[in-house]
C-alpha cells in the first residue's frame, strides 16, 4: 500500500543537534550484537568523568552505497557529556555544529542503504552538502502496556 492508497509518506525531519561527544568501540561491519557492544561502552565509562546519555547509536564513517552491511565500518556507542578522558578500548570523538535529516527505519538491516539514499537525495535536493558520516539510533519506546517497541532512526549529517 503506497501514498496513493491513503498511507502517509513520512518526510525527513531536519533538526539542529549542536555538538556531540561520542564514545564508542569499533565494529568491522554491522555488529551482530550492537546492544552488547553498547553495554560494554557504558560499563567502561562507569566511574569516569564521562556520563552517557541518549540512545545506543551506530556511527558509520562512509555512506553505505551498494556495500553489504558486513563491509560498513562503524563505531557503536553512546553520546556522552563531561571532560574528555582516555578510557581503555573506547574511542572518543567530537562532532561540531551538527544538523541532521532523519527518518525512521522499519525494515531489515540490509535496507538501511535505501533509507540513507532517500535522506541523501532529499538533502542534495534542498541544496545541502552531506558530511561523510551517518548514524543509526536504536531506541525503545514504551507502549501503554509497558512493553518496549524498538525504534530505529537513520540520520545523515549536513552542512547548512
Attribute tags:
single chain; 160 residues; alpha+beta; Multidrug-efflux Transporter 1 Regulator Bmrr, Chain A; 48% strand
Walkthrough of the structure:
This protein is of the alpha+beta class and 160 residues long. The protein has a single domain (3-159), classed as Regulatory factor, effector binding domain (Multidrug-efflux Transporter 1 Regulator Bmrr, Chain A, Alpha-Beta Barrel), CATH 3.20.80. The chain contains two helices and six strands; from the N terminus they run E-H-E-E-E-H-E-E. It has helices spanning 34-45, 112-125, and strands at 13-28, 51-60, 73-81, 91-105, 129-142, 148-159. The chain has a six-stranded antiparallel beta barrel with strand order 1-3-2-5-6-4. A hairpin with a 5-residue loop joins strand 5 (129-142) and strand 6 (148-159).
Layout of secondary structure:
Layout (H helix, E strand, L loop, with lengths): L12 E16 L5 H12 L5 E10 L12 E9 L9 E15 L6 H14 L3 E14 L5 E12 L1
Antiparallel strand pairs: 1-3, 1-4, 2-3, 2-5, 4-6, 5-6
Q: The CATH topology, please?
A: Multidrug-efflux Transporter 1 Regulator Bmrr, Chain A
How many individual domains? 1
The Rg value, from CA coordinates, equals 16 Å
Assigned CATH architecture: Alpha-Beta Barrel
Give the tally of β-strands.
6
The fourth-level CATH homologous superfamily is Regulatory factor, effector binding domain
Share in helix:
10-25%
CATH class term: Alpha Beta
- Report the average pLDDT across residues: 90
Q: Give a short account of the largest sheet.
A: 6 strands, antiparallel, barrel
Amino acid at each position: 500500500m503506497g501514498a496513493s492508497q491513503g498511507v502517509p509518506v513520512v518526510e525527513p525531519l531536519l533538526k539542529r543537534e549542536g555538538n556531540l561527544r561520542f564514545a564508542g568501540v569499533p565494529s568491522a561491519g554491522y555488529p551482530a550484537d550492537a546492544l552488547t557492544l553498547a553495554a560494554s561502552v557504558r560499563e567502561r565509562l562507569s566511574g569516569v568523568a564521562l556520563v552517557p546519555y541518549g540512545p545506543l547509536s551506530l556511527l558509520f564513517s562512509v555512506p553505505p552505497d551498494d556495500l553489504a552491511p558486513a563491509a560498513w565500518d562503524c563505531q557503536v556507542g553512546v553520546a556522552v557529556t563531561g571532560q574528555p578522558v582516555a578510557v581503555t578500548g573506547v574511542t572518543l570523538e567530537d562532532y561540531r555544529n551538527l544538523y541532521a535529516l532523519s527518518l525512521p527505519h522499519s525494515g531489515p538491516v540490509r535496507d538501511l542503504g535505501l533509507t540513507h539514499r532517500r535522506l541523501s537525495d532529499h538533502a542534495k535536493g534542498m541544496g545541502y552538502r552531506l558530511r561523510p558520516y551517518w548514524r543509526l539510533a536504536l531506541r525503545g519506546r514504551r507502549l501503554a502496556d509497558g512493553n518496549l517497541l524498538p525504534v530505529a532512526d537513520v540520520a545523515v549529517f549536513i552542512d547548512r
